[in-house]
Amino acid sequence: MLKIIEIEARLFVRDRLNSLFAILFPSLLLLVLGAIPALRTPDANFGGQRFIDSYMSALVVFTLVFIGLQRLPAVVATYREKGVLRRLSTTPMHPARLLAGQMVVNFAAVILSVLLLMVVGYVVFGVDLPHHPLGLACAVVLGGAGTFALGLVIAALAPNARAAGGWATVVFMLLMFFGGVYLPRFMLPSVIQAIGSYTPPGVEALQQAWLGTAPDWRHLAIMGLVSLVAGTVAARTFRWE
Predict the structure, then answer these.
(1) Which of 74, 150, 157, 208 is spaced 20 to 30 Å from 214 by Cα?
(2) What is the 3-state secondary structure (H, E, C) of 76-145?
(3) What is the pTM of this model?
């Protein structure tokens, strides 16, 4: 298992464009937004906080959604299309371990990206570190699990890598919209805000934890339920060939 994780990590690093984009882009976007003086000024629309303070959770959403829906399904679907999974099925190592290795490596990339985002925000713009670290960790784990499970459903059902990329892009756009990445959440209708609170990766739970309160247990429970249901669907429909 350790060898698989090592190999998957090497392949992740070799895919420089997607890997660097997933890890660095949230921090780079924060630097660009923070360079605008108006976004560093306290605003009543954000509860007296600055835009960049309230936008940190949306940047975490981007990290989880990009890795979980743009990278994971495409890689797994490519493995199936090229016969990698079929070949592994003839060895003593079950192909499921390959999926486990993918999950470990991609989630490690999520953690690295979020930590880098914290450091850049704190050092450059004085953004507070998460006020509820344990709550943020729970939100990231459950939100990431739900997002990755949706990615595995797409990987399980898509006939090839091209189809997986197309289907994942649609879900990617929807989750980015509900997660307040395209528009600040206060500008969205209340119904859209409510949907974003309960759908992975759980922007409301991330924001609550970052700004100082424990995430709503209902948000975490729904994301856990999505992880369970989507993971079950992916496991039952997944084809190794």
Answers:
(1) 150
(2) HHHHHHCCHHHHHCCCCCCCHHHHHHHHHHHHHHHHHHHHHHHHHHHHHHCCCCCCCHHHHHHHHHHHHH
(3) 0.89
